[in-house]
Hints:
Layout: E1 2-7, E2 11-16, E3 20-26, E4 29-32, E5 38-41, H1 43-46, E6 56-59, E7 62-63, E8 66-67, H2 70-84, E9 93-98, H3 104-116, E10 121-126, H4 127-134, E11 145-150, E12 155-161, E13 164-171, H5 175-190, E14 192-193, H6 196-206, E15 217-224, E16 230-236, H7 237-260, H8 264-273, E17 275-278, H9 287-295, E18 299-300, H10 308-318, E19 326-327, E20 334-335
Parallel strand pairs: 1-9, 9-10, 11-17, 17-18
Antiparallel strand pairs: 1-2, 2-3, 4-5, 4-6, 7-8, 11-12, 12-13, 14-15, 15-16, 19-20
Bound molecules: adenosine-5'-triphosphate and magnesium ion (MG).
Amino acid sequence: xxxxxxxxxxxxxxxxxxxxxxxxxxxxxxxxxxxxxxxxxxxxxxxxxxxxxxxxxxxxxxxxxxxxxxxxxxxxxxxxxxxxxxxxxxxxxxxxxxxxxxxxxxxxxxxxxxxxxxxxxxxxxxxxxxxxxxxxxxxxxxxxxxxxxxxxxxxxxxxxxxxxxxxxxxxxxxxxxxxxxxxxxxxxxxxxxxxxxxxxxxxxxxxxxxxxxxxxxxxxxxxxxxxxxxxxxxxxxxxxxxxxxxxxxxxxxxxxxxxxxxxxxxxxxxxxxxxxxxxxxxxxxxxxxxxxxxxxxxxxxxxxxxxxxxxxxxxxxxxxxxxxxxxxxxxxxxxxxxxxxx
Length: 342
Ligand SMILES: Nc1ncnc2c1ncn2[C@@H]1O[C@H](COP(=O)(O)OP(=O)(O)OP(=O)(O)O)[C@@H](O)[C@H]1O
Ligand SMILES: [Mg+2]
């Protein structure tokens, strides 16, 4: 059994070639605070965030694209793998999409966690390569294709050609940073402290990289920073767009940096092909229009942009022997043209 996994900061997506997406749930785990025994995972655990008694810890074990709490990541993945492989005896071979710029220690911790969660073989695939394959781009051609994956924790940008990464960069600033900017604004402007789920909801419902054509309003509920009492305020879409503008600009500045160092032939290809935007944040209102305004380049979002990395990782696993950029598992070293399908 081959599986592609996007073990993300916000969500875990598991894809099996030939069968489709088997699981797509929030990357959240709730455990007993004393014994670390599993209480809930994924959809069941996400509503517990910020609402737990002292006896329960509900956390997102990955932060900014890397493993922040190793034991909890392993436990969460073990639970998810057991759900999708419940009636199988053989352990699965797994390809995991990871952020572009992570340290050797962070990479090793991914490999160890996935093995410990029950995988037979683990391959790490750069997130933009996985996303490009999942988006259906033909990465084998001698033609520069730019892919930008914006998730919860990281923004990864690569120019791909001939199955390899020609230029890439990554920043640990993405959806979560936008949520934090919104929460900071609501606190500064209204003296109201809101939780991360509320901030994310405001971002999705009324936020945007560009002002909305039709102004919207939303209710933000939280705790007054002075009186400590529950309170709510009504916010407008213009306010939320303004609150997130600086973070969105930082997030998108990274692909400017990549464009600046892209060899001229490939820059010409990008001008013709446009930018492929994937990851959950690709669905943000006005993002592609904003990026086009910034660069003058056409942008497109594939169908189900948040699922592309998992789909592409699973697909890459099948054809991994022909990929020039695969990270090796047992030796933890970066190797060229590895064959991991056996
Ligand atoms: N419709 C939407 N509008 C704006 N943002 C959205 C929308 N849908 C999802 N998001 C955001 O996308 C982000 C999650 O994207 P994704 O699932 O690609 O992240 P991830 O793979 O878990 O994270 P990473 O790859 O950074 O580790 C979250 O910040 C979420 O709020
Ligand atoms: Mg991701």
